[in-house]
Amino acid sequence: MIIIIDFGSQYNQLIARRVRESRVYCQITAPTLTLDEIKALRPEGIILSGGPSSIYAENSPRTDPGIFELGIPVLGICYGMQFMIDVLGGKVRGAGKREYGFAEFTAGQSEGLFKGISERTMPCWMSHGDAAETLPPGFEIIGSTRNTKIAAVAHPGKRLFGLQFHPEVEHTPKGKRILENFLFDICGCKPEWTMTSFAEEAVAAIREQVGDKKVILGLSGGVDSSVTGLLIHRAIGSNLTCIFVDNGLLRKNEMEKLKVSLRQHLRMNIRFVEASDLFLDALSGVADPERKRKIIGRIFMDVFEAEARKITDVEFLAQGTLYPDIIESVSPFGGPTAVIKSHHNVGGLPEKMQLKLVEPLKFLFKDEVRQLGEALGLDEELVWRQPFPGPGLAIRVLGEITRERLDVLREADAVLLEEIRKSGYYRKLWQSFAVLLPIKSVGVMGDQRTYENILAVRAVTSRDAMTADWARLPHDLLGTISNRIINEVKGVNRVVYDISSKPPATIEWE
Ligand SMILES: Nc1ncnc2c1ncn2[C@@H]1O[C@H](COP(=O)(O)OP(=O)(O)OP(=O)(O)O)[C@@H](O)[C@H]1O
Ligand SMILES: O=c1[nH]c(=O)c2[nH+]cn([C@@H]3O[C@H](COP(=O)(O)O)[C@@H](O)[C@H]3O)c2[nH]1
Ligand SMILES: NC(=O)CC[C@H](N)C(=O)O
Ligand SMILES: [Mg+2]
């Protein structure tokens, strides 16, 4: 495996993806990880990520420089390279010429990191304002751009490497080859990591963590918690109880449908708990998105804990948390990444919890979870369900939530999904849903003036929810959706289509 040390780059999850696409397992960790912890993970290589800080600034993130003496190959990217150069005795300064975006990189050699790349000069993608000025002893320059003489460095004896550009982004076309040279040639990794091997390791790890204690799992009917259920069930069988919570924020007929399909496809203990009033009462009068999320996170936990008390020996709560949930909710590993929104299952968790967490998917992305689901034989319908957020319709009825407004949204959402399914777009879209806006507009229906709600339709394509684009749905399909919603859903007289990408917008509106 490979360890990626997180210095706060926007791209470190991309580094992880690239490594795993090359079928090598990796984990992202905090710079605060100790040398002993690193050794215990027995990595074949270490990658130091980029980051927003300048190495010469006060409180810039650092990791134990002892990593350079372990005999394990290290690749520093951008800030990671600057850190390596700085602690080993070179000098990094604010560069006169900053580089953002495209640059032309010329490699000084055709072996090592650049093995198998026929051209010496290649496009690369840069994002830095600092640059190395002098190198530590034993290091040599192995590539430059016009503005940056020290754009790639190596200490061949110690197998330490640094790149000022970002090999992990798609705009560095040879980046994948460079990373694979590091993984396979320099670190000696083998491309052997598969979802089946991940499943075996995860099952063993769950057994070790849980022992003979019992686990409850928040089961939502989404692919993440279903796959989590399959893994845990493999590990501990009937010591697992799944809890589905009707929080009053579900789509139309969701619980009835799931009662049938979950019991049919997941042959395990499942309890369905009705808790609508608890959630809706606590949310009454609350308009702020972050407050809604925190309230929902807390009540989920109350419900889970109450259910846990009904079973003896429950010590663990399992959730289908994925890596992107963590990245956006909290500074993941003590790293300096900004909080965007508190996903109910991460940042929304209360500080004091009696149950300990089991989250076997927390380093995976959704497409990896789907592959894993397929490998575990999960039903196709469940594997390909569009994600639905735990806070549900609460973050799609903008502003204050009432039961009436939830009903309006439910009806509209049902029409929308029906049309999306009929059109064959359901699986092509990451998500498609309706949002009820907190403003009204004037219309005319049957010669009468109306003053009613506006409903927004959101449909996006995405690979992992970290970035997304609005879907170019056919105008006729949008027309049908709008027409049906306005005709069939009482209380809506206008439908608009959301054409914002993420970033700068997010997928959900709250
Ligand atoms: N209604 C619910 N009842 C019980 N647990 C839930 C419910 N909604 C969400 N959860 C818990 O919160 C976790 C995160 O929700 P999230 O929506 O990200 O995942 P998911 O529902 O499993 O999959 P998907 O992202 O495809 O919807 C779930 O994996 C599950 O453990
Ligand atoms: O389980 C969840 N709990 C939450 O609190 C939550 N908030 C957003 N989402 C889902 O995460 C993905 C990214 O959403 P955003 O672009 O809105 O941040 C999208 O797929 C969202 O539907 C959530 N899922
Ligand atoms: N992307 C990065 O890692 C940037 C590193 C450093 N902040 C610079 O500007 O050079
Ligand atoms: Mg969900």
TrEMBL record:
Enzyme class: ligase
Catalyzed chemical reaction(s): XMP + L-glutamine + ATP + H2O = GMP + L-glutamate + AMP + diphosphate + 2 H(+)
PANTHER family on file: GMP SYNTHASE [GLUTAMINE-HYDROLYZING], GMP SYNTHASE-RELATED
Quaternary structure note: Homodimer.
Active site: C78 (nucleophile), H166, E168
CDD domains with a match to the protein in the record: GATase1_GMP_Synthase, GMP_synthase_C
One cellular component (GO) term of this entry: cytosol
Positions of ATP binding: S220, G221, G222, V223, D224, S225, S226
Gene name for this UniProt entry: guaA
Record-listed E.C. numbers: 6.3.5.2
InterPro entries documented for this protein: Class_I_gatase-like, GATASE, GMP_synth_C, GMP_synth_GATase, GMP_synthase, GMPS_ATP_PPase_dom, NAD/GMP_synthase, Rossmann-like_a/b/a_fold
Keywords: ATP-binding, Glutamine amidotransferase, GMP biosynthesis, Ligase, Nucleotide-binding, Purine biosynthesis
Family annotation (Pfam families): GATase (PF00117), GMP_synt_C (PF00958), NAD_synthase (PF02540)
Organism in which the protein naturally occurs: Desulfococcus multivorans DSM 2059
SUPFAM superfamilies named in the record: Adenine nucleotide alpha hydrolases-like, Class I glutamine amidotransferase-like, GMP synthetase C-terminal dimerisation domain
GO MF annotations, alphabetized: ATP binding; GMP synthase activity
Name assigned to this protein: GMP synthase [glutamine-hydrolyzing]
Protein's job: Catalyzes the synthesis of GMP from XMP.
